[in-house]
Amino acid sequence: MRYRYRSQSELDASLNARATVADVTPYLTAYAEKSALARKTLDCRIGVPYGPTPAERLDIFPAKNPGSPVFVFIHGGYWKALDASDSSFMAPMFVEAGAAVVAVNYELAPIASIEEIVRQCRAALAYVARQARDFHGDARRIHVCGSSAGGHLAGMIAAVKIPVQSASMLSGLFDLEPVRLSNCNEWAKLDVQSAARNSPIRHLPPSPLPLVISYAPNEAAEFVIQSEAYMAACASRGYRAQFVTEPGTNHFDLPMRLMDRGSALSRAVLGAMGLG
Predict the structure, then answer these.
(1) pLDDT at 81
(2) Comparing C-alpha atoms, which of 257, 251, 259 is closest to residue 22?
(3) What CA–CA distance (Å, rounded) separates 206 from 234?
(4) Mean pLDDT, to the nearest integer, of 170-185?
(5) What CATH class has 8-140+150-258?
(6) 103: how many CB neighbours lie within 10 A of its CB?
(7) To 5 degrees, how large is the angle CA 145–CA 146–CA 148?
(8) Peptide bond into 217 cis (omega under 30)
(9) Which one, of 105, 147, 128, 130, lies nearest residue 269 by Cα?
(10) Considering only CA atoms, which of 17, 188, 3, 152 is closest in space to residue 75?
(11) Which sequence spans correspond to the domains of the chain?
(12) Rounded CA gap, 20 and 130, in Å?
């Protein structure tokens, strides 16, 4: 199997984010610990259901003031790992900056197909829009953000007429055809049609919205290629897609820069939300 002049082993390596760090465990531990601290120190509604299955739930951190923008975060984990409980480490920064924060949970692969995961995340955003006033949010000012597989899911949310005002995709995947051809398909279970239906590069936002794109300096090759291609495709439609560099980061600690209001990534996201 070859793809873009790559052998099978080269293709697999180009999608292997874990190979970019010596040990992923410290980062996953930090996600969980810092998210637990956020839930302990902030007003938080844990496990709010947005769909019929136990996995379809949200952790919601209300804004301090009514009519605030809403920051919605979708975790990564290659669609097969992590949880909303690992996904609210940035909540203190955004609440202090004047936003409500929502961490989205979804059923993991291979129990759920990627298509079903996309459906669940879209349902989560629809719920957030309907209920935004209940946690001091403004449904007209929703920002969706995702990292890694979450970046892909944020792209799929931005592709439909769900009320998203702006979006950020960190180390995202936007074309699932190489995923289908790689060893990732052991859990992704994609065929040609489902890969096409669920590739953001084939389903760009239907109208202009501010986009923030970032990836780490040492990303595996496919994450870089796909982020650049997605930005170029959006720019070709006249959409404002801002690329943000965060020197010294890797695939796993890049989203943790959202904890620091002074980081380049946080400043760009807050700016897109109207909180700059």
Answers:
(1) 98
(2) 251
(3) 10
(4) 97
(5) alpha beta
(6) 29
(7) 155
(8) no
(9) 147
(10) 152
(11) 8-140+150-258
(12) 40
Give residue 236's Cα distance to chain centre.
Answer: 23
Residue type, 88: S
Q: What is the CA radius of gyration of the chain?
A: 17
Nearest to 121 by CA among 94, 81, 158: 158
Label each residue of 112-178 as H, E or C.
Answer: CCHHHHHHHHHHHHHHHHHHHHHHCEEEEEEEEEEECHHHHHHHHHHCCCCCCCEEEEECCCCCCHH
Residue 140: pLDDT over 70: yes
Question: Are 11 and 1 in contact, with CB atoms under 8 Å apart?
Answer: yes
* pLDDT value at residue 23: 98
The pTM score is: 0.97
Taking the C-alpha atoms of residue 274 and residue 140, their distance in angstroms, rounded to an integer, is 12
